[in-house]
Amino acid sequence: IDAPTIRVVVHVATVRKMRQYGQESGRAGRDGVASEAIVMRECRETRVRQVFGAFGKDVEEEVQTLIGGSGCMR
């Protein structure tokens, strides 16, 4: 998609690869105006992490660091 006026990209499922996240979140702000990329996690997903202490093995470590927090990651 080459639509320069996209301001927000929302990920509604766990991002598994940093390259995937970079490609998808990079769709916002192509015209140089401030934009956001938001990762939404399911409550169930967060609860599984609390119980088992880890993401699935298919989630890259860099992505775990990025989405493992609870606040803004800028």
UniProtKB/TrEMBL annotation:
InterPro entries to which the protein is assigned, alphabetical: P-loop_NTPase
Name used for this protein in its record: Uncharacterized protein
